[in-house]
Amino acid sequence: MCALKLKSAEETRFDSIALGEVMLRLDPGNVPTARARTARVWHGGGETNVAEGLSYCFGLRTAVVTALVDDGIGRNIENQFREAGVDTAHVIWFSPSGKGRFSTDGKGTLHNGINFTFAGKGVLPSVTEYYRAHTPVREVGPGDVDWDLLFGRLGTRWFSTGGIYTLLSPKTAELALEAMKKAGEYGIGRSFDLNYRSKVEPNKERARQINRRIVPHVEFLVGNQDDFGDALGYETKKVAKDAPFAQWLEVYTGMLRTVAREYPNLKLIGTQLRGALTADRITSHQTPREVTAEGQVVVDAPAGDGHGPLTIKADTLSYQETGTLLTARGQVSIKEEGTGLVRAESLQMNLTDRTGRLNTTSITLADQELNLTGRLAEKTGPSSYRFEGGVITSCPIEEDRAPTWSIQCREARVTIDGMAVLKHASLRLGPVPVLYTPFLILPAKTTRQSGFLFPEISQSRRDGTGFIAPLFVNLSPSSDLTFYPGQYTLRGPFLGLEFRHLNRADSLVALQVNYLHDRTSDAGPANSDGDYRHDGYLRDTHDRYWLHGKGDHYFSPRLAMRVDLDAVSDQDFIHEYRGTMAGFDRTNQDFLKSFNRGVSEASLEYRESTVQLAGRGVLTTAGAELRYVDDPRHRHSDVEPLQTLPRLTMHSRLPLSDWPVSLAWNSEYLNYYQAEGLGYQRLDLSPHLMAPLPLGRFLDGTVAGGLRETAYQINTYGDPADGGWQGRDNPTRTAWDFDANIATLLKRDFQPDHPRLKSFSHLVRPNLGYRYQKFSDQTRLPEVDGTDRLPAYSQLYWQLNNYFQAQGRWWSSRPYTSQTGSFKINQSYDFLKARQDLASPTDRRRPFSDLNLDLEMSPFPATYLRYQTNLSMYGEGFTSYQLQGSYSNGNRDALQFNYNFVRGSANDLTLTLQFSLTQRLATRYSTSLSLLQDHKTSESLSLIYTPRCWSMETTVTQDSNDRRLMVIFSLTGIGKALEFDQFGL
After folding, report:
1. pLDDT confidence of 369, banded at 50, 70, 90?
2. Does the CA dihedral 524-526-532-536 come out positive or negative?
3. What is d(CA 246, CA 739) in angstroms, rounded to the nearest whole number?
4. pTM for this structure?
5. Distance from CA of residue 560 to its chain's centroid?
6. Is the preceding peptide bond at 32 cis, omega within 30 degrees of 0?
7. How many Cβ atoms sit within 10 Å of the Cβ of residue 352?
8. Residue pair 738/692 in contact by the 8 Å Cβ criterion
9. Average pLDDT of the chain?
10. Residue 120: CB partners within 8 Å, gap ≥ 6?
């Protein structure tokens, strides 16, 4: 490389010209974009910022070459350029009138680029959201800019562009290349900023191909370590995290030398390491050469010499420019990448090795809510400290008052994201020491780390003494593994294994298997005390397991896969250990939280595993499913479970030309399979025509009709005990259906005379319709699911739906809009049932369906009530009803209930009550009743004590098989200090 030779200022019109994109930037300040209601208006562009900075900072003569739509946004950007002294005479303006060479329409087909930029702080990261899909700068290509005028007749000393602009479209890349070549012909200095952005071009190889064509015409190339790898393909060799800065610099400069050899046209390569000092007042002293800063001082030191980025805040700070010693005083805080927050009254630090001394120091481990304080501390490394007189607690520390719990020690050595080693440590409740140990090790983690979790201890008449010690293994930032090794003295060894992987927020996997080598089995006989759960199935296997898992993965916004796994050696295994740390109850809660769906109900006598794939297009959706049924009962009988391998569906709706008619097409193919017995393949096709009814302004309606063709292929597998299928191997069925409805919408707003209620709205939607379905003979068909037997009907139906909404202000004066409830009624009349033949003189025709009522209310925050019922029209009263409700408040008071009644088959009540007895003490009662069988399914009573930084929960649970006592002590920041289970009380 050699020195640059530039033209003189006297022979040129411009010192620099920049080619690039410019966008209007909306800045919501310290409020995230999703919650912002105001924003400041700025502008910016990776290339045009260069021209503006040279003009603002150095008073140079600069111009920009870009393209803008000639509207208010474009003129706003132009005015900001002019305020900075940048020449805008060479901006290409696209007229929104549709006239001229550079034009568009007024509909926004082309628009000026806009971005929303939230400059985050702390746990909220900065986020920029771009709207640049159809900007005019993408449409300007070779031949559209008069470079001979700019570089020749007017003249310039320097030309610059960058890697964001070149990736916007094929035209922008070609225009940048054209400009670089033309600038070289006129002897103009040329710079190119690699500045790779994955949001602009995710395909790095495409970016490299474009940049490799431009860089041979560049003199000054700008980029950091990542840019050279992403935008040109020159990777810097990895060095150890704790390697000295000189070693990293040697590797980095070696890469740059390779770039310089392969591009001999380059005369300069620029990069930077960022660091900054900000304060209300900064003073530089000449004798001695020292810098002092006062008022809201912030020092940002870059990564280097084996250290990560460092931020120091203080009231005052000083350091010598020729030395490495930094002194800070007053509300000092230290934050290093991957560590906790350190606070002190004063600090002396060597910036080279980042060691020093601190007075009255505390370390906060945010993830664990733990604080470690000490009178005097030494910073012995990038993230290691030594304390004298250390105190660890998660409780608030008040002057002249001991925390509720704490661990005090004579000396502590702490490695953040590692371990805390305490000498002569004592656990104290208030000021009273209750436990002493000369040596104690605690985790000091700010991220997930491998290690043992708190164990589970249990005692039961059936199991004996049980002990499970889980081991957590952090495989990666997105994957972990947990082992649950344990032993039950009367049953045998237990092992659980759980794997979790999170790819994105919408793509995650959780898989768990529990295994028990059981020395015992059911003694029998069936339905006796020797038969666990008295269900008639005696367990005789010793290798017991439960495999379960779930997975969601989105290949794209329109293609997703869902997996559910569930298989068990025997149904008793789920019930016997459902309350353990690896059992059904906790697994179901974890799955509900992570996947919004839980495990199949524990009482089911079979377990289903499914793999589902669903895709969605503009007019068509399609899906595929494999379903495997694991039925432990079949091991004791000749009945094989029926498997679905596979099921394929497709649903589409296609408008027919310009007619107000659309074709809806629903189709399904499935294959039912079993190892021994009958299975069949079924193809179900259902095309329908749908059209709106022209009923005027106040009514709307639709009409639809079509047919349904179902074809079967009967298969015989193995040697079925019943001799196989006796009918045709390929029966078919044809069905016809028709549906029409008319609806309207009525709404009235009320203005109640209430200071907190602004308005109340009542919306009514009555709906009247008719539906008809008829089919050919289906008695010759197999019968496995509901599709095999369609109901015949000719029904007139009506619906009356009421919706209620309120607007006003709560007692806190916060405004609200609430859907306060709904009330829905529907019923049908079947003409076929009205004309059907009666089997006997005592029979009655029943054309009217039950009257269905559905009332849903949420009149207050955290309050919900729903009542559903069916009322017989033939003097039989209510045939079913369900009542659900919940309530909670800020005092930890809560109520949940669910009452379900179906005549002759169900009469169940589930109730949970929680009351706060005092500010720190609460009680919870839960029960499940089967009123049909007149017994309690389960019942539990808990006493919960929750001071500010620790808690204790005692729960007694009684079900049909056992009684259990569970006691859990938890210290905030450390976790469960003890969990004890007692069964068989």
Report:
1. low
2. positive
3. 79
4. 0.58
5. 15
6. no
7. 12
8. no
9. 85
10. 32, 126, 127
